[in-house]
Amino acid sequence: MTNSDLEEFVDTTDEWITTRTGIRQRRLFAHDRPGFAWELGALAGRRALEKAGMSPSEVGGIICATFTPDYFFPSTACKIQEHLGCKGAFAFDIAAACTGFIYGLAIADAMIRSGQTKNILLVGAEIISRTLDWTDRTTCILFGDAAGAALLQGSNEKQTGLLSSYISSDGSLGHILSLPAFGEKRVMKMSGSEVFKNAVRMMSDATLTALSRASLSLSDIDLLVPHQANIRIIKAIAENLHLPYEKVVSNIDRYGNTSSASIPLALEEAWDNGRVKPGTVVAFTALGGGLTVGSAVMRF
Fold it and tell me: d(Cα 59, Cα 55) in Å, to the nearest integer?
């Protein structure tokens, strides 16, 4: 759905959306059929397994980050497990909103290191369009539906892989970005200016903390893959960290804010475009409703 398409039923313009968000189009599940987050998640998961050359039976666990689950239970992860045929694997969802993928990285890392399993499929899957108030032009223009997945495997190689992670939250700021589970108004509400201010500060700080934990500095970063929330937030973080913008990965113009799916979407594009090679150091950072924040550093 392009910005011009939105003009037909939302009080907005292509110019207004583009200048304030950097978004030109987004992908949305068709409204004339029931859409399931597990469908998108299973599709992304299958592609990740194919790229890794791994069979579903080798997956020991599935973690799905989502704030748009199809059911309270069974979890979206359990439905993905069923669809992929990962028999015997544990499966559960995590709710950290847009920071979900980084929370998932930290959890999967800890579970692999503790010996729980060797292979974990981490999925971010969202159908955000069903949570939006399409009369609220401050929110409905921002989001898209998507899924992304990564296969994480334990290794004895200490110089590559996930070098560090950092996750945190501030529940006192939960009111600036929320989605009720019950009641008549189950639509997303956001205070854009407050989210912007806290996102730039908290994502920058989280990135520095993760780098410190990895004993690295900003100059060691080859790529920054931030959560794709708003182009102004992304540029402000790069400026805050004194990172050249050519080191920043962004595809928000085509997909909008896809929450927990945005980082794996952006990572795959960078990977397929040859920007991620052996030895490339990538920093991830995100902020989500909660507020939740996180960052991770990985050497490929």
Answer: 7
Q: Are residues 287 and 165 in the same domain?
A: yes
173 and 139 fall within a common domain? no
Beta bridge partners of 120: 61, 152
CA–CA separation, 231 and 292 (whole Å): 19
Which of 9-18, 32-41, 75-84, 89-98 has the least mean pLDDT? 32-41
140 vs 122: CA distance, rounded Å: 27
- Check whether residue 21 and residue 119 sit in a common domain: yes
Is the domain of 134 the same as that of 184? no
Q: What is the DSSP letter of 30?
A: -
* 282 and 208 within one domain: yes
> Which residue, of 108, 124, 153, is where some domain finishes?
153
H helices, E strands: number in the chain: 9, 10
Task: At 76, give phi and psi (nearest 5°).
Answer: -60, -40
Domain of 181, in residue numbers? 161-299
Using one digit for the tens of pLDDT, what is the confidence trace for 209-239?
999 999 999 999 999 999 999 999 999 999 9
* Residue 289's CATH number: 3.40.47.10
User: Model confidence over 243-294: pLDDT tens digits?
Assistant: 999 999 999 999 999 999 999 999 999 999 999 999 999 999 999 999 999 9
Positions marked catalytic: 98, 227, 257
SS (H, E, C) 130-151: HHCCCCCCCCCCCECCEEEEEE
